Amino acid sequence: MQCVECVQQANKNIPTQKTQYGGRLRFGLPLMTSIFIGINIVVYLLQLIIPGFTNQLVLVPGLAAYQPWRLVTSAFAHSPSSIFHILMNMYGVYIFGVMLEPRLGRLRFAWLYLLSAVGGSLGVMLLSPANTATLGASGALAGLFLATIIFLRGNKPAVQQLGIVLALNVALGFLVSGISWQAHLCGAVAGILAAVCIVAIPRSNPQRTVIQLSLLGVLSVVIALATYLAVAAAKWTIG
Q: Which family is this sequence assigned to (predicted)?
């Protein structure tokens, strides 16, 4: 027989199981992946129900200069005229989320997703005309895609297959109208940089988690500053 305090103290002394890249090991359906998919679905339903709701979410560089929330909301909105837009994006988020979240842990995966999403919006601000309307999770999805290649770099067959899919997506981005290559490009860059912040620190380093999160914090500041400057430049251009 053991007292309650003894059991609690013994549980505290049990080492926390870690994921491959330092997060807390958890079992079951990846929580953050489910949350991101759920948010996108709820927003999509609101777009269908509320007239004009999409117009308040979509990213237009000329409008984002004065309504900066569009930099985030556009990454969780999809075209209400085609259900395939959200279905394809959410399928991609699910596939990469199931692969990445168990390896990274909830915090690192959520950070990677959000940095990629904002990075995609930054690409639209920098590279798209001021009157271009963009929406969708494609920036975040591109970041997850490229990050997966980084995390699976030791698995050559998987990397080769992902490379073929990447090449096809790059070609489609330039050949098919209506696809924002700007969001894909900068979302992918943000995803690569976030992945490097995580994988660059070896497992043997006792300060691994602290360094990883610090690097992600620095990257977040850099992307936030670049986004602020892009918004300010758009506002100055518009006058």
A: Belongs to the peptidase S54 family.
- Give the closest residue to 112 by CA, choosing from 142, 80, 81: 142
Tell me the C-alpha distance between 70 and 152, whole Å: 33
Q: What is the pLDDT of residues 142-181, one digit of tens each?
A: 999 999 999 988 777 766 777 776 666 555 555 555 678 8
For residue 94, CA distances in Å to 19, 73, 115, 141, 237 come to 19, 20, 17, 10, 39
Are the CB atoms for 142 and 187 separated by under 8 Å?
Answer: yes
pLDDT digits (tens, 9 = 90+) for 78-88: 999 989 999 99
Q: What pLDDT does residue 10 have?
A: 42
Q: Where are the domains of the chain?
A: 28-238
pTM given for the model: 0.88
Give the Cα separation of 42 and 24 in Å (integer): 28
The two tokens of residue 152 are: 């699976």
Contact yes or no for 101/163 (Cβ under 8 A): no
Nearest alpha-carbon partner for 149 in 167, 168, 163: 163
Question: Three-state SS for 203?
Answer: coil
CATH topology of domain 28-238: Rhomboid-like fold (1.20.1540)
